[in-house]
Automatic annotation (TrEMBL):
This is gibberellin 2beta-dioxygenase. One of its GO terms (molecular function) is gibberellin 2-beta-dioxygenase activity. It comes from Gossypium davidsonii (Davidson's cotton). The keyword Oxidoreductase applies. Belongs to the iron/ascorbate-dependent oxidoreductase family. GA2OX subfamily. InterPro entries: DIOX_N, IPNS-like_FE2OG_OXY, IPNS-like_sf, Iron_ascorbate_oxido_reductase, Oxoglu/Fe-dep_dioxygenase_dom. Residues 178-284 form the Fe2OG dioxygenase domain. Transmembrane segments: none annotated. PROSITE patterns: FE2OG_OXY. It catalyses: gibberellin A1 + 2-oxoglutarate + O2 = gibberellin A8 + succinate + CO2.
Amino acid sequence: MVVHSQSAALDHCSLIKTCKPTTSVFKGIPVVDLRDPEAKTLIVKACEEYGFFKLVNHGVPMEFFTRLEAEALKFFNLPQSDKDKAGPPDPFGYGVKKIGSNGDVGWVEYLLLNTNPQITSPKSLTVFRETPEIFRSSAVNDYIQAVKRMTFEVVELMADGLKIEPRDALSRLLRDEKSDSCFRLNHYPPCPELQALGGRNLIGFGEHTDPQIISVLRSNNTSGLQIYLRDKTWVSVPPDQTSFFINVGDALQVMTNGRLRSVRHRVLAESMRSRVSMIYFGGPPLSEKIAPLASLMAKGEESLYEEFTWWEYKTSAYKSRLGDYRLGLFEKKTGGAAGQ
């Protein structure tokens, strides 16, 4: 995605959406210390109010961050013809600009990898086979395994805070050998030509919620991430390359019967600095039935959603556009489920 002239750049991004500048930096992002005795309470509160929080003192070595980021940048800085050998995504592998198969595009290139050792993705193998000296699988594996362990702890603390029984009701879905989890590396190249867009911001990755149970994001120290607050305003999240940002996903919204809400978010392109992000998406096995957890339901409380399998929801989500309210198709017609 290296572009050498302003006209070429604008040509290249002509189909990519823009939005009005948002100068509001949100300083109220909830911060949770994983070692805080009150972490379980703080996690639940943050997920109820925002569906989003920053996690510090998480125990994942900084070395894992820096090594993976360096290897990712080596890959993304390869000639386009070399990167294309790992694409197009199916859905795993390398993709550029095009997000999904339904017309969404963004100022982004990415690698999507499977985190399940039981499933081999030919495109994932291509990344490591074609560029073994550039993109070492150990950098990916070390990072993913550490993040998984941390995520299991986070969702078990969440279960404690919500008084979910058994305590591993959420973590067992992520630990399952058939867990449908994935890992994504995003690269948003700088776009110096942004000034020619009439003061508007270029969309790197369009607004959406994540379909899975939970998403665990780490990025470099470049801004761009924004979340949508309940007062219907977009705010920028201050970057922090040493911490994780945790998102509630659609599946978790259903499993808590709407008590926790998946957060709508997007990424904007920067004019001078590239942004690199790495996201672990924790998903259940494909055959898992998604419905409100019995231990969370008050006596006489009705489910806001029809029961569905993760395969059914995932299939539906990937047929939609990024910005669609995907859960709307699974809300019960009576019962007053809250849309987005």
